[in-house]
């Protein structure tokens, strides 16, 4: 049996997240592999995978903040809001040349902070139980409702005018559920010239960044975890240490006194081993996931 823990993959372009999971199953020699949030095939960067018992962590990981490096091309909109879609409109160079730096800055500022964002039609948002992108590919017209997201940071790092359009290299730090493709679309629409994404690289997911990510080739050469189960829990959750008596009670699924910690926290026994993920409920605490039953 493979050791339990997290593998942080630096996903290559051209692969789906499911493709990466299938590859890591072969590399780690286990069927128990899951991912915490997908990346589009075009995108590269941080993809968090759980191995063996660590798959139980994935639904509880505090991955509510993500960072990206991206390139937005102004001057054309597409069916998918990125370079993989078909062109819907292409603006002539004269109109594109009329877009000034301060217009772009104003457009970026309007898309920063708490905003209402309509996800891309080819997103993974479910419509009547089915992913929106599947409905679009089946020829349906999908209209998604706007939903609140937070763009903590939206910085333009570089600007390049070329024959194919006006490219902006940007850094985006945002809440989970934010679509960078939709930011490109909405910025282009606000400027009246259209826009789409031509490159996307995720640099962080929650506490996990590219510094601990490994390529699939590196994993092929040396199949090992990025973080073992104990290190993963310590990195992703507040830590609470308990004595042997409380640890045994938790292992048997019993309630124990509240720790006074807000949200989900990891509980560690006197030997430094992660026992469970727990949450306070009044004066007692209840287990969300028991990682090592007694």
Brief descriptors of the model:
alpha+beta, Pseudouridine synthase, five-stranded mixed sheet, 294 residues, 23% helix, Archaeosine Trna-guanine Transglycosylase, Chain: A, domain 4, tRNA processing
What general form does the structure show?
elongated
Strand content: 35-45%
- H-E order: EHEEEEEHHEEEHEEHEEHEHEHEEEE
| Secondary-structure-derived class | alpha+beta
Topology-level CATH name of the largest domain? Pseudouridine synthase
Low-confidence segments, given as residue ranges, are none
**Number of structurally distinct domains:** 3
Organism: Herbihabitans rhizosphaerae
Protein name: tRNA pseudouridine synthase B
Domain tRNA pseudouridylate synthase B C-terminal: 181-222
EC number: 5.4.99.25
Commentary on this structure:
InterPro entries: PsdUridine_synth_cat_dom_sf, PsdUridine_synth_N, PUA-like_sf, PUA_sf, tRNA_psdUridine_synth_fam2_C, tRNA_psdUridine_synth_TruB, TruB_C. One of its GO terms (molecular function) is RNA binding. It is an enzyme of class 5 (isomerase). 23% of the residues lie in helices and 37% in strands. It has three domains: 5-63 and 206-228, Pseudouridine synthase (2-Layer Sandwich); 65-205, Pseudouridine synthase (2-Layer Sandwich), CATH 3.30.2350.10; 237-290, Archaeosine Trna-guanine Transglycosylase, Chain: A, domain 4 (Roll), CATH 2.30.130. The radius of gyration is 22 Å and the shape is elongated. It is built from eight helices and 19 strands. The chain has helices spanning 17-28, 93-97, 101-110, 132-137, 180-191, 216-221, 229-236, 244-251, and strands at residues 5-11, 33-35, 44-51, 65-74, 76-78, 87-90, 113-117, 126-127, 130-131, 147-162, 165-175, 195-205, 208-209, 227-228, 239-241, 256-257, 265-268, 274-281, 284-290. By secondary structure, the chain is α+β, with helices and mostly antiparallel strands. The strands form four sheets. Strands 1, 2, 3, 4, 7, 10, 11, 12, 13 and 14 form a ten-stranded mixed β-sheet that branches. It has a five-stranded mixed β-sheet with strand order 15-17-18-19-16.
């Amino acid at each position: 049996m493979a050791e339990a823990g997290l593998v942080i993959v630096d996903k290559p372009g051209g692969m789906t997240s499911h493709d990466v999971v299938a590859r890591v199953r072969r590399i780690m020699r286990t069927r128990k592999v899951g991912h915490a949030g997908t990346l589009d095939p075009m995108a590269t960067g941080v993809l968090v995978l759980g191995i063996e018992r660590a798959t139980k962590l994935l639904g509880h990981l505090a991955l509510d903040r993500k960072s990206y490096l991206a390139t937005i091309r102004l001057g054309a909109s597409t069916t998918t809001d990125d370079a993989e879609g078909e062109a819907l409109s292409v603006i002539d160079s004269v109109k594109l040349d009329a877009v000034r730096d301060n217009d772009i800055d104003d457009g970026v500022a309007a898309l920063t902070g708490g905003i209402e964002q309509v996800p891309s039609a080819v997103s993974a948002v479910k419509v009547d139980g089915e992913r929106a992108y599947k409905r679009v590919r089946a020829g349906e017209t999908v209209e998604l409702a706007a939903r609140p997201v937070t763009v903590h940071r939206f910085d333009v790092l570089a600007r390049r005018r070329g024959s194919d359009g006006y490219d902006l290299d940007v850094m985006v730090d945002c809440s989970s559920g934010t679509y960078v493709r939709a930011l490109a679309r909405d910025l282009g629409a606000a400027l009246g010239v259209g826009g789409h994404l031509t490159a996307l690289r995720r640099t962080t997911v929650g506490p996990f960044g590219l510094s601990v990510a490994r390529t699939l080739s590196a994993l092929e050469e040396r199949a090992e975890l990025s973080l073992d189960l104990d290190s993963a829990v310590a990195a992703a959750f507040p830590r609470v240490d308990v004595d042997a008596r409380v640890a045994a009670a938790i292992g048997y699924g019993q309630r124990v006194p509240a720790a006074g910690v807000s949200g989900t926290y990891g509980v560690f026994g006197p030997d430094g081993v992660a026992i469970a993920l727990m949450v306070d409920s009044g004066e007692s605490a209840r287990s969300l996931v028991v990682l090592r039953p007694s």
